[in-house]
Design brief:
This protein has 291 residues and is mainly α. Helix 10 packs across helix 11 and helix 12 packs antiparallel against helix 15.
């Protein structure tokens, strides 16, 4: 049965239909490219302008006064090296906790089949329907005085690491992948005497690299781009993340230097996406088909 499309093969074979198709395609692709890459181009180009040109109306598309020293000045004035190290520490700590705890939770829901496992997974997924800002107040009250241990976690790495572990999307993504693994493979390992933990470590994790890579990228980028939660829970300037630190030090800093600092803070996540974009797509679709 032929595939149904907006334009039939007969119309596309005609010169007029082919020309119309190419024009519409170019306009749509160009429009989406402009919408997504326009702000990014403005950010990068404005980092090379002087303070007067940045605020000029109408704005200039190409910097007339090329000032590459804005980035080095932003690095020194705003102490971006310390903020960068703080952010890396928080991001990779959150990554370690998510890989350990989220993988364990997803594997238990997928293979160990606990009592009320489907209800637990349903409640986890229900949290995805709640806006993150709604949870800020109860989370803040919790870290002010953690139940049972009665500790204040403000200005500690735990205030970033622990909330990041409760990631229902990553748990669902991992569980879907574990569900797609051949049951015969895991049964064969169990018949050889492997415990569930040994099966997870020696069999499941080595073949789960695509989805683990996606979860790792999401964990790092999630901490890197977060602003509201670190601003509330890390008031000490020496312990702030990159985004919060730039915001705190923005008073009195020229606009072009501030934009250069924002460009530097955006580069790591852009590089991660450009390098691992194929891994992201393959990991997201890894558990889509069983067999």
């Amino acid at each position: 049965m032929p595939t149904r499309t907006l334009i039939s093969s007969a119309q596309l074979a005609k010169p007029r239909g082919k020309a119309l198709y190419r024009i519409v395609f170019a306009v749509v692709v160009g429009g989406f490219t402009l919408v997504f890459l326009g702000p990014l181009y403005w950010l990068v180009s404005s980092g090379f302008k002087d303070a007067q040109e940045v605020v000029r109306t109408p704005p200039t598309l190409v910097p007339e006064t090329f000032t590459p020293g804005n980035h080095s000045r932003a690095w020194e004035v705003m102490d971006l090296s310390s903020l960068l190290l703080n952010t890396l520490y928080y991001a990779f700590g959150a990554l370690a906790f998510q890989l350990v705890l989220d993988v364990a939770a997803a594997y238990s829901l997928s293979r160990l089949r606990p009592v009320l496992g489907k209800a637990i997974l349903g409640m986890m997924l229900a949290t995805l329907m709640i806006p993150a800002t709604v949870l800020v107040v109860p989370q803040y009250q919790t870290v002010l005085d953690v139940p049972v241990v009665e500790r204040n976690l403000l200005n500690t790495p735990w205030v970033i690491w622990l909330p990041s572990v409760t990631n229902a999307f990553n748990i669902f993504l991992l569980k879907r992948f574990f569900d797609s693994l051949p049951k015969e493979l895991l049964d064969a390992a169990a018949m050889d005497g492997a415990t569930p933990v040994r099966v997870l470590w020696s069999v499941v994790l080595p073949i789960s690299r695509p989805v683990l890579g996606v979860v790792s990228i999401f964990a790092v980028v999630g901490v890197w781009k977060d602003f509201l939660w670190p601003m509330l829970t890390l008031p000490d300037p020496a312990k702030q993340t990159l985004n919060v630190g730039i915001y705190s030090l923005s008073n009195g800093v020229p606009v072009n230097v501030l934009i250069a600092a924002l460009t530097i803070s955006s580069l790591p996540t852009l590089i991660i996406f450009l390098v691992f974009q194929r891994n992201i797509m393959s990991g997201l679709t890894a558990g889509g088909l069983k067999g």
